[in-house]
Amino acid sequence: MNLPNLNQRPRAIAIDLDGTLLNSQTQLSACNRAALEKCIDLGIPVIIATARPARALNRFLPQYLTENCSLIMLNGGVAIGKIPLSGYFKEPFPETVARRIIKLALELNPHVRVTIELDGYEFGGNWNGDAETLWQRNSATPGMLLSVEEALSRQPCKIALGGDGTDVLKLIDRLENSLGDAISVVPSTGTPLFPPLLNVTSSQATKPSALQKLLIPVGISLAEVIALGDDFPDIGMLKDCGISVAMENSVPEVKAVCSYHTASNDEDGVAIVLERVFLSENSQ
Questions:
Q1: Does any domain span residue 239?
Q2: 103 and 80 belong to one structural domain
Q3: pTM
Q4: d(CA 168, CA 183)
Q5: Is the per-residue pLDDT at 135 higher than 60?
Q6: Residue range 52-82, pLDDT digits in tens
Q7: What is the CATH number of the domain that holds 223?
Q8: d(CA 34, CA 279)
Q9: Are both 67 and 166 inside the same structural domain?
Q10: What burial class does residue 12 get, using C-beta atoms within 10 Å of its C-beta: 0-12 exposed, 13-18 middle, 19+ buried?
Q11: Residue that is last in its domain, among 142, 177, 202
């Protein structure tokens, strides 16, 4: 490990969820929970930044954290500020761009799995599944799944693409060559419940841009934020924040952009950093 040894305490904390705050069983450990709650009690803004939708968070986080942590969801597509932060922000696609994304993906793989997120709660897709699969993967029941057409007409802010037979690298090339600066395309390595996929958002919807929108009104810059992450969707946030910490289980690309490294998500790496930086006798 290479833990932060800082002269001045950061003014905010930004933490990825899967592979960072949650362990390999997508559980929040008692140590990580206690460390977060102590930081909140000290008045430090805690922002959870994830590709997941809001509807999933209650499955993994206790009520105290969902009520007191600010949230960046859908890779920056939606942001919600909680005290001491505030505000609600959404960065949707133009409908023409969203339709083009899906058309390009289906041309490459007619069986590609498409999930269209609207606001972190409502979503649509081109697939069907039993109730158990829907709950495990989308925190939803069958009646909550909208059709593709209905979802596209309601200002979606993230489209996830994947499934068997999808050539992710080729799909990235197709999307970026066709839509260029209109979109942000970020791969995810996946979790035990979520296979690898592409997260596509508006180019204006990123974790660091959402962080700025939440923090600027209270006079906090990204240079004053400590960020922790493990996967490709976290790289922009880690590069733009002043103090960046990679988990031991991070992909090499994340470790390469971080100044510091902590233990893995199965070894309470988040709690180790928060205890050192904010909660120990030597912290500022």
A1: yes
A2: no
A3: 0.88
A4: 16
A5: no
A6: 998 888 888 999 999 999 999 999 999 999 9
A7: 3.40.50.1000
A8: 11
A9: no
A10: buried
A11: 202
Strand bridging mode 70-73 / 260-261: unpaired
Is the pLDDT at 191 greater than 60? The verdict is: no
Instruction: Report residue 180 as tokens.
Output: 């260029």
Residue 284 falls within a domain, yes or no?
no
Is the Cβ–Cβ distance between 68 and 42 less than 8 Å?
no
Instruction: Examine the domain organization and report whether 110 and 190 are in the same domain.
Output: yes
CA 205 to chain centre: 11
Contact in structure between 77 and 90 (CB atoms under 8 Å): yes
Name the nearest CA neighbour of 18 among 60, 72, 54.
Answer: 60
Residue-number span of the structural domain to which 125 is assigned? 95-202
123 and 140 share one domain: yes
- Residues 173-198 have a mean pLDDT of 80
**Average of per-residue pLDDT values in the chain:** 90
Residue 151's nearest CA partner among 119, 128, 183, 108 is: 119
Considering only CA atoms, give the Rg of the chain: 18
d(CA 218, CA 45): 10
Q: Residues 164, 211: one domain? A: no
Number of domains in the chain: 2
**Measured in Å, how far apart are the chain's first and last C-alpha atoms?**
21
Question: Among residues 151, 168, 202, which one ends one of the domains?
Answer: 202
* Cα–Cα distance for residue pair 275/155, rounded to 1 Å: 41
Q: Where residue 169 falls among pLDDT bands split at 50, 70, 90? A: confident
Whether 165 shows a pLDDT value over 90: the answer reads no
- Do 78 and 34 have their domain in common? yes
- Beta bridge partners of residue 254, listed in sequence order: none
Residue 265 lies in a domain: yes
Task: State how far the Cα of 262 lies from the Cα of 271, in Å rounded to an integer.
Answer: 10
Q: Is the pLDDT of residue 164 over 80?
A: no
**What is the pLDDT at residue 162?**
86
pLDDT above 90 covers a percentage of the chain that reads: 72
Is 192 among the domain residues?
yes
Task: Check whether residue 127 and residue 226 sit in a common domain.
Answer: no
